[in-house]
Amino acid sequence: MPTAHNNAEKGDIAKTVLMPGDPLRAKYIAENYLEDPVCYNQVRGMLGYTGTYKGISVSVQGSGMGMPSIGIYSWELFNEYGVENIIRVGTAGAVADSAELRDIIIGVSASTNSNYAAQYRLPGTYAPTASWKLVSAAVNAAKDKGCRFHAGNILSSDTFYDDADSLSQWRKMGVLAIEMEAAALYMNAARAGKNALCILTVSDCPLRGLSTTAEERQTGFRNMMEIALETALTIS
Ligand code: HPA
Fold first, then answer.
1. Is residue 3 situated within a structural domain?
2. Pocket around ligand 1: residues whose beta carbon is below 6 Å from it?
3. Domain annotation covers residue 100
4. pLDDT, tens only, 69-96
5. Is 163 an active-site residue?
């Protein structure tokens, strides 16, 4: 049944969905990495496609920016469309000194300054965590590729333009990188009893004032996509 945000029919979407933030990235991934992609959603321009990768069915859909947006799309994929696994593929700002431009970050856990967890009325602080089977498959794929990667805690922030100088505080706690979606995705997956992972490529270093060129972003993107697709294959 189509929802208010997605006009796919049940069965149009694969059990595993890759989610870039940008819907045009979803189109690019579908056209360049999947065979026989079919577009299943155009509502609000949040393009979604299903195709095959090495014989398995895989979907790719934009999430939009920020936790409210990925919160809506991933909730519907898990709870209305029977999706089992969502792998977010995105960019991040480096926080840890060890994270360099173009490095791959595998988000084992996602700290956050968002209040998304308040809806669960927990008597404490929740730790949004990726699914181990996706983490271990992604780590193996990254090792096989031989590219630089880090696996650990990331920060999902509600703000891109933040008025406080809080990144150095998060760095003291060992946070690897900052992005804006993973914590809500991990909480939706946990609540639905499903699996999620966020794989990132470092596009900039806000603490050091560095950013990647368009060409560097493409290389990082290719590594991340190959890791994400091999992860989808391993868990299928
Ligand atoms: N902040 C938040 N999200 C991001 C950043 C950043 O510096 N870089 C890429 N995604």
1. no
2. 91-93, 157, 160, 178-180, 203-204, 206
3. yes
4. 999 999 999 999 999 999 999 999 999 9
5. no
